[in-house]
Amino acid sequence: MRIRKLSSTNAFVAVDIDGVHGLGVVRLAPKILQGGAKDLARSMTYSLACLGRSETGVSAGISVAPEESEAALAAFVEEVAGWDDGYRFEAGKGVAPADLGSLAVDAGDPLPGAVAAAMAACPGASTAVTDIDDRSPLAGLLADHGVELLEAADPLTAAADLLFVGSGAGAVDHDNADRLGAKIVVPTVRLAVTTRALAMCSRREVSVLPDFVVLAAPLAGIDEATAVLAEVLDHADGPVLGACERAEAFLGTWQDELPFGRPI
User: How many Cβ atoms sit within 10 Å of the Cβ of residue 222?
Assistant: First the structure.
């Protein structure tokens, strides 16, 4: 993993693997931390690897005050486009797709792929809960499969077949993993479940779907991402570790050494 700092504005790009085209997200705020950006870049690398794409995950951070955002974004786009590395970005926090010009890629809607993943993991599901603020789009998608999205004061502890987690990275952590009321956790954002929480879920036989596979659907299509998920659902160590092994097997076909550390 390498941090490439820009000279034209207070920004950086975390690059997981050098020498290849890359895809990731750019975020803007008064302070974007490099650690979180590295984690997001690694997650995208594993998404791409699961899809059989010899590309790298990247993640950019622009740390400026709101009144400086327009100039900073313009400088970011101009400088990174000049690198000629083929990096493309989804618009994250503080950024609109139109701000990214030639660097922009459509992030796509993660919910259709997440629902498809959930139904592949639990075809007989009839109830779901979520911590996503805007519940209506998810409710509509689930209704098409005969699944009711329940109202819950605390969706993490509510009893349901499925829990869709989208409130942010680390939403499921060691403080709440032992209180989850659902049997299947479906991330709709990257890094929604911490490493320690994943281990706790495994001990409780709560299945966590791999976020980097669920969120690969907008990159390649729902059918391809769901097919990848189907291959790892019954892995002896759980679908997340199964998906990690699948990604690493592909990375090993074109990298002499695997990136250090998994996106979990």
Answer: 17
% of residues, the chain, pLDDT over 90: 98
**pLDDT tens digits, residue range 31-79?**
999 999 999 999 999 999 999 999 999 999 999 999 999 999 999 999 9
The residue behind tokens 């969120």 is 215
Give CA–CA dist 103/74, Å, rounded.
11
What totals of helices (H) and strands (E) does the chain contain, helices first? Answer: 9, 10
What is the C-alpha separation between 28 and 69, in angstroms, rounded? Answer: 8
Class of domain 110-240: alpha beta
For residue 123, give the 3-state DSSP assignment: coil
| Crossing angle (nearest 10°) for helices 222-232 and 239-251 | 110
Q: Which segments of the chain belong to CATH 3.40.50.10860?
A: 2-103
- In CATH terms, the superfamily for domain 2-103 is Leucine Dehydrogenase, chain A, domain 1 (3.40.50.10860)
For the entire predicted model, the pTM comes to 0.96
Written as six digits, the tokens of 214 are 């669920």
The structure tokens listed for 245 are: 């092994």
- CA gap 82, 75 in Å, rounded: 11
Residue 259 DSSP class:
P
